[in-house]
Amino acid sequence: MKTETAISDLILKCEEQGIRLPKDPWHALRVTIAALQKTKNQALGYLQISKALDQLENELSNDAEAMDKIATKTLSSRPALVSKRSLVQERPTTTQRDAIASDKYDHDFHEQDRAATAKISIASGMKKTKRFKKSRIQEQAEATPAVRDENQSLVNQLVKLGEYEMINGYTQRGLARLRAAKEICGSPHVITSGAQAKKLDHVGPVVATKVDQLLNEGLAAALSDHLRNYDKFWAQRSLADLVTKCEAANINLPKDPLEARAEAVEAIMHSKQNGKINLKYAQDMLQQKFGLGCESKQRIKNDEAKRLLRFHSHKKKVKSGGDVEQSLKEENSSSIRQRALTVSKRSAIGQDQDVFAVKASNDVNDALQILQGDVVSVTEKGRLSAERRDASEFAKNMMGDHNYGCIGQGEPTLFETYDLDGQNNNGSGNSDD
User: CA-to-CA distance for 75 and 60, rounded, in angstroms?
Assistant: First the structure.
């Protein structure tokens, strides 16, 4: 920050003392930084602005135009950046004809790219342009005529200058010009100098200097001076932005801040095309020239490792999601299989119960056939009576447990219609007779 402040102070002092710096703001920065480098106290390490100012006065004096021509001649053409792929391996050799064709294609492609970029920037600028709204002070200064007619031209020039500066972003400076115009408009005296205007209210030393310039050189000189200062301001700001970006990217710039800024100015001047600078291109040039620091390389490796870790973890998540789906499918199939087994077991149990009922009915039929026989022995009677009792008990159990339709409830059973004991008694009586 001290280096940028020293450069800005030296440029301001050159303007105050009338030292003509090169018109191009980047050439002016180059000359200013070179003067500070030559007059720097190497033992203590601090900058000597006064000695640098004297050196600039001796070197430049009235040769600013010659310096512009020399700077334009010494500035080499824009160097081609080495592609990122060629940093790892060199490009394969081609024939001269292919090389010329590829260069022509690249040139045409870059020309089309720049044209498209220019159209986009113009369109975006047109969209962002807003109608300027006049302030109340400006409306009053324009609506009110000057008390003295001799001051009307000065009032009009101050109003135009203030409006121009407000449109370009210098709101406070533009308001100061408009307040001075309002005060001069109501002044009963003819204003012939800045010192006389300084006696009025709301007119400071800076506005008084601008009044002198308007009275002596006119509005065009004031506007050109404003444009020159505007370009120098943006040049210094762009230089500071580039150095900040290089430090954030951990580019190994020279440790001397003046030398680092001199290299940054050279990179910016080489990046200019069609009067516009490209800070990204300049940063790439500085990175290729000085390289990255160890911390930046380690950070890049760590970022790559983190990226790979996230990639593998994402793959594992996808795989685990597939396993969950597979397990759900298996669980569903097992549940379906279990339900099928349950149904088959139930059907088997029902079949077993049907078999038991059929056996019981067969035993009852056998017993009836035996009862209808004519000759039955006593031993057979006892055995059959035991079998009948067993069969009747079995049938009753089956009827009570399973309630099948082969022996219905509520209807007289086979054992109720046929009285086995009565038949036995009758049979025994007949045999006795």
Answer: 19
Rounded-to-integer distance, Cα 237 and Cα 230, Å = 11
pLDDT in tens, 82-128: 444 444 344 444 444 444 444 444 545 445 555 555 444 444 444 44
CA within 13 Å, CB half, 159: 24
- Pick left, alpha or beta for residue 274 (phi over 0 → left; psi -120 to 50 → alpha; otherwise beta): left
Query: Shortest CA distance to 164 belongs to which of 181, 187, 185?
Result: 181
Q: Are 149 and 187 in contact (CB under 8 A)?
A: no
In terms of Cβ atoms closer than 10 Å to its own Cβ (0-12, 13-18, 19+), residue 180 is: buried
* CB of 21 closer than 8 Å to CB of 34: no
How far is 286 from 266, CA to CA, in rounded Å?
10
Give residue 381's identity as a one-letter amino acid code. Answer: K
* Tokens (6 digits) for 331: 């669980």
Whole-number Å distance between alpha carbons of 249 and 231: 27
Predicted confidence (pLDDT) per residue in 193-229, tens digit: 888 888 888 888 888 888 888 888 888 877 776 666 6
Q: How far from chain centre, in Å, is Cα 357?
A: 80
Instruction: With H, G, I as helix, E, B as strand and everything else as coil, classify residue 75.
Output: coil
CA-CA distance, 136 to 316, in Å (whole number)? Answer: 67
Global confidence as pTM:
0.41
Determine the Cα angle at 343 with ends 338 and 347, to 5°. 145
Closest CA to 179 of 127, 141, 126: 141
Helix (H, G, I), strand (E, B) or coil at 387: helix
Which domains are assigned to the chain? 1-72+223-291 (no CATH), 133-216 (1.10.150.110), 297-432 (no CATH)
* CB contact at 8 A, 33 and 261: yes
- For the chain, give percent helix, strand, coil, nearest 5: 75, 0, 25
Q: Using CA atoms, how far apart are residues 101 and 104, in angstroms rounded to an integer?
A: 5
The C-alpha atoms of residue 351 and residue 348 are separated, in whole angstroms, by: 5
Q: Measure the CA–CA gap between 156 and 133, rounded to whole angstroms.
A: 18
Q: What is the pLDDT of residues 129-150, one digit of tens each?
A: 455 567 788 888 888 888 888 8
- Among residues 80, 139, 134, which one has the least CA distance to residue 107? 80
Output the CA angle 52-57-61, nearest 5 degrees: 155
